[in-house]
Amino acid sequence: MNPRLRLLLTVVAAVQAVLSIGFTMQVPAITGLWPFPGTTALSFTFIASIFGAAAASTLWCVWINDPASVAGVALDYVVIFAPAVLFALAVNSAEANTIPFAIASVVSVAFGVWLLTQSWGKRYRDLDPTPRPILIAFVVFVGALIIAGGALVLKTPGIMPWQITPDLSVLFGAMFLGAAVYFAYGLYKRYWSNAGGQLAGFLVYDLFLIVPFFQRFGTISDTLRVSLTIYTAVVTLSALLALYYLFIHGPTRILRPTR
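The chain above was modelled as a monomer; its predicted structure follows.
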């Protein structure tokens, strides 16, 4: 990987990590950047999990030093932020000044497109295949993310296991659809160089949400209990899958011996 690209990705991941921590701790200087009213503490945790997942996936590309692995991350940027630009412009008002958010989304789309020019079509350095259980899991993830993401974009209530506003429903749906494209790319390019980054991102996402989800079982309403049960099962099982292949399974673990 070009050293300048590697440095740039490291800086981007660091910024994403800072934003993730800031949204988790609800630091006013960070949450003040989010223009959409009605964002609850759990919604901020969800947003933090997205930034954390992005940082983990980006750092994976830096860790393995393979520019081809960046393509999936780049697609994620484009699919999430392109509709976010249009949506932010559509809902801009005196109550919610979304123009800065729209500008940041435009920059993110441009960055994603540029990353695609740096990574698309490049040959992978490591041609180790993605283990079959992960491919099967990715098929499930893609299907679930498309269904849930599409429903959220259509503002269908009860998809998320907590109350969200219609505006947040659309944005969170776009995030789900972006993740679906990322995992679908892992099915298209079936190399561990791809899958490792996707699992690393999913693991961080899971770790942000799993404790708050379990804590909600004692207080959640019956109307949201089904979605909470399904969502909790998904984050638990995907975390176990990621932990096994990233840290235990010999041929794929991060700290495996150099060949």
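The CA atoms of residues 154 and 256 lie 44 Å apart.
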